Amino acid sequence: MVQDLEKILEFKMTELESKAYKLALIWEELVKTELPKHKIVTSLKKKGDPRKSTLFKYTYKLATETNGLLPDAEYRLYITAQLQILKAITDGKVHARISPECIVGDKAWRRWKLWKSRYDKIVEAKKPEVANLSASDSKIIAEINRTKDFLVKQFGHPPTQDDITRSIKEKFMVKWISINKVCPYYAILSPFLKSALNGKPIEHVFLFDLTIYQTSLNDAIISHFRDVFSHEFA
Q1: Is there a single domain that holds both residue 116 and residue 190?
Q2: What pTM did the predictor assign?
């Protein structure tokens, strides 16, 4: 890798050319990882000026198109997104259609935004897997109490089954949980919310897997929830 980067100095590349060259190296690395059986027909020139490669032409265009739009730290994710999406839609074929051309243009940007949106949700959903190891009962109890106060303020009274059902249908509950106005423990433990889902899997409604919070629950927390939202268990 260091030897490859020496070509930046050897051929006196500009800052933008250097960036494009590094993106080309990332492309070659990720193709080997994501498509191990894919024969790379478009790669950097092994001898001579790498800027004369077709691959460099596309990574230079990528660097130009996304200048100021994409943080440098996200280019590896960006290229990964293109490869993973196109790999998924080639129906198990040899991925012959996947070439560096896929990393530029409006379609590539739309693929990125779709992939990144899903990626961010997965990352956000997985955070509690680490946090829950140190999440104290008192912190979770405080979140449950805060949720009760928020819902009473929203509806003007302790939420009824109709209130919760309407909040699901009108997507308010999804928003409230997404912005942390309602804690995920309510989504897991509420009988009203479970009834409002009408058999739909909770992750389908809330777009990410709230059940990862399940590992933080214990008898004391569940008992406290039943006390705070006792009207739901009547």
Answers
A1: no
A2: 0.53
